[in-house]
Specification:
The structure holds two protein chains of two kinds.
Chain A lengths: L1 H20 L6 H7 L3 H16 L7 H13 L1 H4 L1 H24 L4 H19 L9 H7 L8 H19 L1 H11 L1 H6 L4 H27 L10 H11 L11 H21 L7 H23 L1
Helix pairs in contact in A: 1-14, 1-15, 3-9, 3-12, 3-13, 3-14, 4-7, 4-12, 4-13, 6-12, 8-12, 9-10, 9-14, 13-14, 13-15, 14-15
Chain B lengths: L1 H7 L4 H18 L4 H27 L9 H16 L6 H26 L3 H19 L9 H8 L1 E2 L2 E2 H19 L1 H11 L1 H6 L4 H26 L11 H11 L11 H20 L4 H19 L7
Antiparallel strand pairs in B: 1-2
Classes of the chains: A mainly alpha, B mainly alpha.
Chain lengths: 303, 315
């Protein structure tokens, strides 16, 4: 019980720390600013969560987000139809990777590490120099200012709700998680493991595309390396959110909470604590270790 | 004929054949020019991949889920430590090397401490550790512009008859690693744990100690690699180890070591490292752009893994 509350608890702790250090940050404007990059991080984390649900890992999601960003800032603005086709095609590549990994029984770590080079190379080919510009509709979407609640919070709630419903409440969602939980049982029950793997990888590609587009909507222009940090952030987000590496045990709501925690802890909290930005990455690692340690303590007591 | 078949049945021979084919393709393109120099350059660069590759190989052999993702950060930090301790002074070379080794060993031991204390998959443990190491390196190595001592830089670039001395030493080291793997209690224990950790434990293998030693060994080799890289490239750099995450895992898998654990192959690490280095040389010789080079490198790695096929995944 306590364990399932851990993701929410870590977020509350980080928020309390921020409120204590700088009360003025807890405001409409403060949250809009602090959670600025939370939407693409949350989407990338959800993307990573789908492969992890199938007992795989995607080490290419960061460079993929960068590639999508480059396409968004160039083709999607200048020739929307071609841009959409490229993005759909890249989701197709993800589906194919799922099929390849299943059929040839390949280690996803190595395949996706290889793919991370491919996406990075493609990103450089699409956009050799930093630049480009986000399509206007995307800019106005990401700059949306709803009354009372800042947009990033609404977006996070929406993402968590939609994915939670799809993966946790529908029958095919159960099958998808089951492919990570007990693949043999699922196969004997007549489900195609090839199809579940393809579905999980295609969903990863889909949310990766959303993440890249959201990122460019915020930064307004792109750079081939813009998403590189997202690989590690997304894995950390899933684990922080209570996801397990094996057994199809993941939580979409937890993943979004994990992503928000990382987004808040990495830069706003450190800034308020006057810690130099050098230690941003370390803060992510430290939070991960603290939460995992807390998890060990809790499960020991509950046993 | 029978002996030829016996050779082809060895899992590591394919990586050497691949390296040979890439080399032939390149000298066919240049019209036979620069073939020897290419081998010298390939040997000098392959050394750095082989050293971390051997460490990664022992870790991966421990079985599903075991992989060291902290190597790039480890290499970066150790390169800075080595350069700072040596401080451009020839008399301090040995001390600097020892410091880099100690730094790497401490990182490896910390990795295992996280795995053991938090009971988390090694991927997450080494990942979280690498976040922290990276920050320490950024903070510690900021603006670090110390050149390696001239003696050390010369040593890492020293050649005899076109053969880099570092490569000869690394061959000796890999022979030692192969003996440790196949003929010593340590290596046999690693293989036993990789095949079936419970059976190994019941058979009296000290599982915890062997895993601790293996992660420490991987860390130590990462540290050594960092120091040598800083000597070879004339200076430390936060990003100096970045390419060795993919490279260290790729050479292990391409070299015929099972990602499911329990089956390792030392010669294959050399073949695969030469293959990767020669591949890059070939793409550079063909004059392709950086983007195309990255795409082709990625595709060829995915292709080789697909062709080699797999037993079950790393986790």
């Amino acid at each position: 019980m306590l364990r399932s509350l851990l993701p929410a608890l870590s977020l509350v702790l980080v928020l309390l720390a921020i409120a204590w250090l700088n009360p003025r940050a807890i405001s409409y404007f403060g949250f809009s600013l602090m959670l600025n990059l939370a939407i693409p991080i949350a989407l990338a984390t959800i993307a990573q969560m789908f492969v992890i649900a199938g007992n795989e890992l995607d080490l290419s999601i960061g460079t993929f987000v960068g590639f999508v960003g480059c396409v968004t800032a160039t083709w999607l603005k200048d020739a929307p139809l071609i841009g959409v086709l490229i993005l759909l095609g890249s989701i197709g590549v993800y589906a194919l990777l799922g099929a390849l990994i299943h059929l040839r029984n390949l280690p996803s770590i190595v395949v996706t590490l290889g793919m991370s080079f491919v996406w990075q190379g493609l990103a450089i080919l699409v956009l050799p120099k930093p630049g480009g510009k986000a399509p206007d509709w995307l800019l106005s979407l990401m700059a949306f200012k709803p009354p009372l609640v800042p947009f990033p919070i609404i977006a996070a709630l929406l993402i968590a709700a939609v994915v939670h419903f799809g993966l946790m409440r529908t029958s095919y969602g159960v099958i998808l998680r089951g492919s990570g939980g007990n693949a043999a049982a699922l196969e004997r029950a007549g489900w195609s493991l090839l199809r579940t793997k393809i579905a999980l990888f295609a969903l990863t590609g889909f949310f990766g595309v959303l993440s890249g587009m959201a990122l460019i909507g915020i930064t307004t222009s792109a750079d081939a390396n813009i998403g590189n940090g997202y690989t590690l952030l997304s894995i950390a987000g899933v684990i922080l959110g209570g996801g397990e590496f094996v057994g199809g045990r993941v939580s979409p709501i937890g993943a979004v909470l994990g992503a928000l925690t990382l987004a808040l802890a990495a830069s706003p909290l450190l800034t308020f604590m006057h810690i130099p930005p050098d230690w941003q990455v370390a803060a992510n690692g430290a939070i991960l270790i603290i939460v995992l340690a807390a998890r060990v303590l809790i499960s020991r007591r509950e046993r | 004929m029978a002996s030829l078949q016996a050779w082809l049945a060895k899992p590591w021979i394919w990586s050497f054949i691949g390296a040979l084919l890439v080399w032939l393709a390149t000298i066919a393109f240049t019209g036979g020019y620069g073939g020897g120099g290419m081998i010298t350059a390939a040997l000098s660069l392959a050394v750095f991949t082989v050293i971390v590759g051997v460490g990664q190989m022992f870790v991966i052999t421990l079985g599903p889920g075991n992989v060291d993702l902290s190597l790039p950060a480890n290499i970066g930090l150790a390169s800075a430590v080595a350069m700072k301790v040596m401080d451009g002074n020839d008399a301090m070379i040995a001390v600097g090397l020892l410091a880099a080794l100690a730094c790497g060993m401490a990182i490896g031991a910390a990795n295992y401490l996280l795995i053991w204390a938090l009971r988390i998959p090694p991927i997450i443990a080494t990942l979280s550790a690498s976040f922290i190491i990276q920050s320490i390196d950024i903070s510690y190595g900021r603006g670090l512009q110390i050149k390696p001592p001239p003696g050390f830089a010369d040593f890492t670039n020293w050649q005899i008859l076109g053969i880099p001395v570092l490569a000869i030493l690394t061959v000796l080291f890999t022979i030692g690693a192969a003996i440790a793997l196949q003929r010593m209690i340590y290596g046999r224990s690693v293989l036993a744990i990789g095949q079936n950790i419970r059976a190994a434990w019941l058979a009296g293998v000290k599982v915890g100690r062997i895993r601790f030693l293996t992660y420490t060994l991987s860390g130590a080799l990462g540290g050594l690699d960092g120091a040598l890289l800083a000597g070879y490239f004339r200076g430390a750099n936060v990003d100096i180890g970045n390419e060795y995450l993919l490279a260290s895992i790729a050479v292990v898998v391409i070299g015929g070591t099972s990602v499911a654990g329990g089956k390792a192959n030392v010669p294959g690490v050399w073949g695969a490292a030469l293959f990767l280095v020669l591949l890059l040389t070939m793409l550079n010789t063909f004059g392709v752009s950086a983007g195309v080079r990255l795409v082709l490198t990625g595709l060829i790695i995915v292709g080789v893994i697909t062709a080699a096929g797999g037993q079950k995944a790393l986790r």
